[in-house]
Amino acid sequence: MRPFWLLRFGAACGVVLGLTIGVPGLIEAFTGETTATSLVIGLGAAFGPAALTALYLHIGGGGRFAGVAYALNAIGLGLFAGVAFALNLVLFFLTESTVDDVLAGPTGPVIRIAGIVFVLGTVLFGAAMVRSRAFARVPVWGYTVTLPLLALLAPLPDTALTSAVHVLVAASLIWLSVTAWRAAGLTSAGTAAATTAGRPTARSGRPI
Protein backbone atom coordinates (compact mmCIF):
# COMPACT_ATOMS: atom_id res chain seq x y z
CA MET A 1 0.00 0.00 0.00
CA ARG A 2 1.35 3.41 -0.95
CA PRO A 3 2.01 5.95 1.85
CA PHE A 4 -0.68 8.48 0.95
CA TRP A 5 0.58 11.12 3.35
CA LEU A 6 4.00 11.02 1.66
CA LEU A 7 2.39 11.16 -1.78
CA ARG A 8 0.35 14.20 -0.81
CA PHE A 9 3.30 15.86 0.92
CA GLY A 10 5.40 15.35 -2.19
CA ALA A 11 2.62 16.62 -4.42
CA ALA A 12 2.32 19.77 -2.31
CA CYS A 13 6.11 20.21 -2.55
CA GLY A 14 5.78 19.87 -6.33
CA VAL A 15 3.31 22.73 -6.46
CA VAL A 16 5.58 24.87 -4.29
CA LEU A 17 8.57 23.94 -6.47
CA GLY A 18 6.67 24.93 -9.59
CA LEU A 19 5.72 28.28 -8.09
CA THR A 20 9.28 29.01 -6.97
CA ILE A 21 10.45 28.39 -10.53
CA GLY A 22 7.63 29.96 -12.53
CA VAL A 23 6.84 33.13 -10.59
CA PRO A 24 10.45 34.38 -10.40
CA GLY A 25 10.97 33.40 -14.03
CA LEU A 26 7.95 35.46 -15.08
CA ILE A 27 9.08 38.43 -13.01
CA GLU A 28 12.61 38.26 -14.42
CA ALA A 29 11.20 38.61 -17.93
CA PHE A 30 10.47 42.22 -17.01
CA THR A 31 13.01 43.05 -14.30
CA GLY A 32 15.96 40.80 -15.00
CA GLU A 33 17.52 38.70 -12.27
CA THR A 34 17.14 40.26 -8.83
CA THR A 35 18.17 39.36 -5.30
CA ALA A 36 14.60 38.38 -4.42
CA THR A 37 14.05 36.14 -7.46
CA SER A 38 17.45 34.50 -7.02
CA LEU A 39 16.66 33.80 -3.37
CA VAL A 40 13.34 32.14 -4.22
CA ILE A 41 14.77 29.99 -7.02
CA GLY A 42 17.83 28.98 -5.01
CA LEU A 43 15.85 27.87 -1.98
CA GLY A 44 12.90 26.42 -3.93
CA ALA A 45 15.06 23.64 -5.37
CA ALA A 46 14.96 21.98 -1.93
CA PHE A 47 11.37 20.85 -2.65
CA GLY A 48 12.47 18.80 -5.67
CA PRO A 49 13.26 15.40 -4.11
CA ALA A 50 9.90 15.15 -2.32
CA ALA A 51 8.07 16.18 -5.50
CA LEU A 52 9.91 13.57 -7.54
CA THR A 53 9.07 10.90 -4.97
CA ALA A 54 5.37 11.74 -5.24
CA LEU A 55 5.48 11.33 -9.02
CA TYR A 56 7.24 7.99 -8.63
CA LEU A 57 4.68 6.77 -6.08
CA HIS A 58 1.85 7.84 -8.36
CA ILE A 59 3.07 5.69 -11.26
CA GLY A 60 3.05 2.74 -8.85
CA GLY A 61 6.68 1.78 -9.15
CA GLY A 62 6.60 0.93 -12.86
CA GLY A 63 9.13 -1.91 -12.72
CA ARG A 64 12.91 -1.93 -12.76
CA PHE A 65 13.27 0.69 -15.49
CA ALA A 66 11.19 3.22 -13.57
CA GLY A 67 13.11 2.45 -10.39
CA VAL A 68 16.47 3.05 -12.06
CA ALA A 69 15.16 6.20 -13.76
CA TYR A 70 13.83 7.49 -10.44
CA ALA A 71 17.14 6.80 -8.69
CA LEU A 72 19.16 8.57 -11.38
CA ASN A 73 16.73 11.47 -11.50
CA ALA A 74 16.87 11.78 -7.71
CA ILE A 75 20.67 11.92 -7.74
CA GLY A 76 20.67 14.42 -10.60
CA LEU A 77 18.02 16.51 -8.89
CA GLY A 78 20.07 16.62 -5.70
CA LEU A 79 23.13 17.73 -7.64
CA PHE A 80 21.16 20.31 -9.61
CA ALA A 81 19.62 21.68 -6.41
CA GLY A 82 23.15 22.33 -5.19
CA VAL A 83 24.03 24.00 -8.48
CA ALA A 84 20.90 26.17 -8.34
CA PHE A 85 21.74 27.19 -4.77
CA ALA A 86 25.32 28.07 -5.72
CA LEU A 87 24.37 29.98 -8.87
CA ASN A 88 21.55 31.98 -7.28
CA LEU A 89 22.76 32.50 -3.72
CA VAL A 90 26.55 32.52 -4.04
CA LEU A 91 27.84 33.34 -7.52
CA PHE A 92 25.08 35.88 -8.11
CA PHE A 93 26.59 38.16 -5.45
CA LEU A 94 30.18 37.93 -6.69
CA THR A 95 31.87 40.09 -9.28
CA GLU A 96 32.03 38.83 -12.84
CA SER A 97 35.79 38.35 -12.70
CA THR A 98 35.51 36.33 -9.49
CA VAL A 99 32.80 34.13 -11.00
CA ASP A 100 35.02 33.50 -14.03
CA ASP A 101 37.90 32.50 -11.76
CA VAL A 102 35.66 30.14 -9.78
CA LEU A 103 34.24 28.46 -12.88
CA ALA A 104 37.72 28.14 -14.39
CA GLY A 105 38.63 25.80 -11.54
CA PRO A 106 37.10 22.42 -10.67
CA THR A 107 33.72 24.04 -9.99
CA GLY A 108 33.02 24.48 -13.70
CA PRO A 109 33.46 20.80 -14.69
CA VAL A 110 31.53 19.66 -11.60
CA ILE A 111 28.58 21.88 -12.57
CA ARG A 112 28.65 20.43 -16.08
CA ILE A 113 28.76 16.85 -14.81
CA ALA A 114 25.86 17.57 -12.44
CA GLY A 115 23.91 18.97 -15.38
CA ILE A 116 24.55 15.86 -17.48
CA VAL A 117 23.38 13.54 -14.69
CA PHE A 118 20.29 15.69 -14.12
CA VAL A 119 19.38 15.78 -17.81
CA LEU A 120 19.87 12.03 -18.25
CA GLY A 121 17.85 11.20 -15.14
CA THR A 122 15.06 13.57 -16.12
CA VAL A 123 14.75 12.14 -19.63
CA LEU A 124 14.71 8.56 -18.35
CA PHE A 125 12.14 9.29 -15.66
CA GLY A 126 10.05 11.19 -18.19
CA ALA A 127 10.11 8.07 -20.36
CA ALA A 128 9.02 6.01 -17.35
CA MET A 129 6.05 8.34 -16.81
CA VAL A 130 5.11 8.08 -20.48
CA ARG A 131 5.21 4.28 -20.27
CA SER A 132 3.10 4.23 -17.11
CA ARG A 133 0.29 6.30 -18.67
CA ALA A 134 -0.50 7.51 -15.14
CA PHE A 135 -0.33 11.17 -16.19
CA ALA A 136 -1.60 13.22 -19.11
CA ARG A 137 0.96 13.34 -21.92
CA VAL A 138 1.26 17.14 -22.08
CA PRO A 139 2.76 17.70 -18.61
CA VAL A 140 4.88 14.55 -18.91
CA TRP A 141 6.46 15.77 -22.13
CA GLY A 142 6.74 19.21 -20.59
CA TYR A 143 8.71 17.68 -17.71
CA THR A 144 10.87 15.61 -20.05
CA VAL A 145 11.78 18.48 -22.38
CA THR A 146 11.70 21.72 -20.39
CA LEU A 147 13.57 20.58 -17.27
CA PRO A 148 16.67 19.58 -19.28
CA LEU A 149 16.41 22.92 -21.11
CA LEU A 150 16.33 24.68 -17.74
CA ALA A 151 19.55 22.91 -16.72
CA LEU A 152 21.25 23.80 -20.00
CA LEU A 153 20.24 27.46 -19.74
CA ALA A 154 21.06 27.83 -16.03
CA PRO A 155 24.71 28.95 -16.44
CA LEU A 156 23.83 31.41 -19.25
CA PRO A 157 22.64 35.03 -18.91
CA ASP A 158 18.89 35.39 -18.48
CA THR A 159 16.84 36.03 -21.61
CA ALA A 160 13.18 35.93 -22.61
CA LEU A 161 13.71 32.27 -23.57
CA THR A 162 14.96 31.51 -20.06
CA SER A 163 11.86 33.07 -18.52
CA ALA A 164 9.59 31.16 -20.89
CA VAL A 165 11.27 27.86 -19.99
CA HIS A 166 10.84 28.66 -16.27
CA VAL A 167 7.11 29.18 -16.78
CA LEU A 168 6.71 25.99 -18.83
CA VAL A 169 8.60 23.97 -16.21
CA ALA A 170 6.34 25.41 -13.51
CA ALA A 171 3.18 24.57 -15.44
CA SER A 172 4.32 20.99 -16.02
CA LEU A 173 5.33 20.42 -12.38
CA ILE A 174 2.13 21.88 -10.99
CA TRP A 175 -0.04 19.86 -13.40
CA LEU A 176 1.74 16.61 -12.51
CA SER A 177 1.65 17.37 -8.78
CA VAL A 178 -2.06 18.22 -8.77
CA THR A 179 -2.76 14.96 -10.61
CA ALA A 180 -0.83 13.00 -7.97
CA TRP A 181 -2.59 14.86 -5.13
CA ARG A 182 -6.06 14.11 -6.49
CA ALA A 183 -5.26 10.47 -7.16
CA ALA A 184 -3.94 10.07 -3.61
CA GLY A 185 -7.18 11.45 -2.23
CA LEU A 186 -9.34 9.15 -4.35
CA THR A 187 -7.29 6.05 -3.52
CA SER A 188 -7.20 6.92 0.18
CA ALA A 189 -10.97 7.36 0.24
CA GLY A 190 -11.45 4.04 -1.57
CA THR A 191 -9.15 2.25 0.87
CA ALA A 192 -11.00 3.71 3.84
CA ALA A 193 -14.35 2.64 2.39
CA ALA A 194 -13.09 -0.88 1.73
CA THR A 195 -11.74 -1.13 5.27
CA THR A 196 -15.04 0.03 6.73
CA ALA A 197 -16.98 -2.39 4.53
CA GLY A 198 -14.82 -5.26 5.72
CA ARG A 199 -15.45 -4.69 9.43
CA PRO A 200 -17.94 -6.87 11.31
CA THR A 201 -21.19 -5.07 12.04
CA ALA A 202 -23.54 -5.06 14.99
CA ARG A 203 -27.26 -5.76 14.59
CA SER A 204 -27.85 -2.05 14.11
CA GLY A 205 -25.82 -2.22 10.94
CA ARG A 206 -23.06 0.02 12.26
CA PRO A 207 -19.42 -1.09 12.00
CA ILE A 208 -18.07 -2.39 15.28
Count, helices: 8
The best one-word shape is: globular
Oligomer: single chain
Strand content: under 5%
Mean pLDDT: 87
Major beta-sheet overview: none
Number of domains: 1
Tally the beta strands: 0
SSE sequence, one letter per element: HHHHHHHH
Radius of gyration: 20 Å
Distance between the termini: 24 Å
Q: Bin the helical content.
A: over 70%
Detailed description of the structure:
This protein is globular. The relative contact order is 0.17. By secondary structure, the chain is mainly α. The protein has helices spanning 4-31, 35-44, 48-58, 63-89, 96-104, 107-132, 137-153, 160-197. It is 80% helix and 0% strand. It has one domain (4-188). The protein starts with a helix and ends in an 11-residue tail after the last helix. The chain is built from 8 helices and no strands.
The gist of it:
The chain has helices at 4-31, 35-44, 48-58, 63-89, 96-104, 107-132, 137-153, 160-197. It has 208 residues and is mainly alpha-helical.
Per-chain topology:
Blueprint (H helix, E strand, L loop, with lengths): L3 H28 L3 H10 L3 H11 L4 H27 L6 H9 L2 H26 L4 H17 L6 H38 L11
Helix pairs in contact: 1-2, 1-3, 1-8, 2-4, 3-4, 3-8, 4-6, 6-7, 7-8
